[in-house]
Structures are given as C-alpha cells and as structure tokens.
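Tokens as discussed.
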C-alpha cells in the first residue's frame, strides 16, 4: 500500500509521515511546495505521479481568528482543497482520510460528549470552512473516505499550547489560564498512529468509512492542562491560576465544551483512544527534547 500525506510540513503531517515510515509503509510526504491542495492541476499531477492507494489530508488553514476576516481563503483551503483531493481519489481509485475539527459543533454541550453523528452547527468562520471540507469529502468519495475530527492538538513540531506552557513555566512566576473551556488535549503522534490504523480498513466493509473522532479520552480545561504540564515538569501546579474566557477575548469565539465521543472505533475493531494524561506524560519529554535542540547554540 502506498500512502500520500498532504500537508506533510505541518505538525500532524510530519508525525503522520514518521509513523507510516516507522511501520515500513511506502510514503510520499508532500508539503505545500509539492502539493497545493487548492490547485486542480497540482492535485492531479500528484496523483498521476505517485499513484497512491491511500491519501491523508493534513493540509489546512488553521488560523482560527484570522479566518473571521479571511473566510474566502480559509474556505479555499479547508473546503475546496478536500473536494479536489476527493475527486482525484475517486478518479484514481484511492482512499482518503481527511482531518477535521471539533469546531464543526456549536460547543454548547455541558456534560455529554458529542457523538460522531451529532448535528453540526459551527459558530466560527473556521468551523464553517472545515465543515464544508467534511461534506465535500463524504459526498465526492462515499464509502472510500473517512473524516477524522480532532481538537487541542500538540506535538513535537510547531507551536502548541503545551509547548507555550513549557516555555512560560521557566519565565513566569504565575500564569492565568482559562478554566471555563473544556476539551481533549491530543498528542499529534497518537492521532497519526490512529489514522495509520484506520486507513487500511477503509473500504474493507460497510463500516470503515464516514466520521470518526480522533481525540484523546477524558477531558480537561485549559487550566487543568497547564497544571498537568507544570506537574510533569516538576513545578508547582498552583502557579497556574484559573480565569475566565472574558479575560482573553478573541475574534473567533472558543467552544465552551469540545469533548468528543469515540463510539465508532469499536465498529472497526479499534479501542478508544487513550487518556490525555497518559499521552501527555509520554509526549512532553519529546517536546522538551526538541525545544532543547532548537535552543542549543551553534558553533
């Protein structure tokens, strides 16, 4: 099986290519320079040149706040890009995994995780554009595609909340962190592994397609996540002080509740994702090691 990873220069794309390589798969990893998902000619050329059996779309416009005033550009990348990939996959007989987001929901739930089939209702431009991409993939490539929604991603490569908290622990005596938004911190390496498990199952039977939720199990507020980072760093979690969203007003409203259910994994013979604390304990040392390498002096 030959895999093609679109958006391979991003956090998840990097981990996706690394996970597939670790498993011994044949992988073509293309960043924006090698595959512009918004260009029909670029997409067709990539499929024709590499003839993938399975494509993972990690390319995305992820600037949530900027999308509020740049929705047309966000829609081109998040909506039209997936459509072009799905159409090309259909022409070439390939399967497609498309990565989406919790922002497709309204965020109004309080205690019950959103199941995969819960009605969508995005409240941001970013969420609307990602939902457009989901619908395009599932319409253009039914039965041979999967949408994997994720949230609160952190990883070794690129910026993330976990990395920022790791940096600030060394620089600040105390931190005020939002405690009224709840979600699922998710290590990008875990998500990559889950997609690598799912991909070969797509199209095998009537169940392995459609929407899946690729977040860690459990839930936390941003404040609770920051405190866990501090604890793992050997610092006093009490240095992280809770505050409300009103203290950090952003152009795009953040969902108050972004906890996703994982019911569909059992349908394809996979266990639900592991708890976010377990994943963070494993992932944080990798992030710190990468930070140390980046900060090391060059002689």
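Sequence:
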């Amino acid at each position: 099986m030959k895999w093609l990873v679109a958006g391979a220069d991003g956090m998840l794309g990097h981990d996706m290519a690394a996970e597939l390589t670790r498993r011994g798969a044949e992988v073509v990893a293309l960043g924006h320079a090698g595959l512009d998902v918004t260009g029909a000619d670029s997409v067709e050329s990539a499929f024709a040149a590499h003839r993938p059996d399975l494509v993972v779309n990690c390319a995305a416009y992820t600037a949530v706040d900027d999308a509020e005033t740049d929705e047309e550009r966000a829609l081109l990348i998040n909506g039209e890009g997936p459509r072009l990939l799905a159409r090309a996959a259909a022409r070439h007989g390939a399967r497609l995994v498309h990565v989406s987001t919790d922002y497709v929901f309204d965020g109004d739930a309080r205690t019950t995780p959103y199941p995969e089939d819960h009605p969508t209702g995005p409240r941001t431009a970013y969420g609307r554009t990602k939902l457009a991409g989901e619908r395009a993939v599932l319409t253009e490539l039914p039965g041979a595609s999967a949408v994997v929604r994720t949230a609160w991603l952190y990883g070794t490569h690129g910026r993330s909340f976990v990395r920022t908290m790791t940096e600030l622990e060394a620089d600040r005596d105390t931190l005020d962190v939002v405690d009224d938004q709840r979600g699922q911190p998710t290590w990008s390496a875990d998500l990559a592994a889950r997609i690598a498990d799912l991909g070969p199952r797509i199209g095998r039977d009537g169940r392995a397609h459609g929407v899946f939720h690729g977040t860690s199990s459990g839930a936390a507020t941003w404040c609770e996540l920051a405190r866990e980072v501090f604890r793992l760093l050997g610092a006093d979690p009490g240095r992280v002080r809770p505050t409300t969203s009103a203290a950090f007003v952003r152009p795009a409203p953040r969902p108050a509740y972004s906890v996703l259910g994982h019911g569909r994994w059992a349908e394809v013979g996979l266990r639900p994702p592991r708890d976010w604390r377990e994943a963070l304990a494993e992932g944080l040392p990798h992030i710190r090691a990468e930070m140390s390498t980046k900060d090391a002096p060059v002689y």
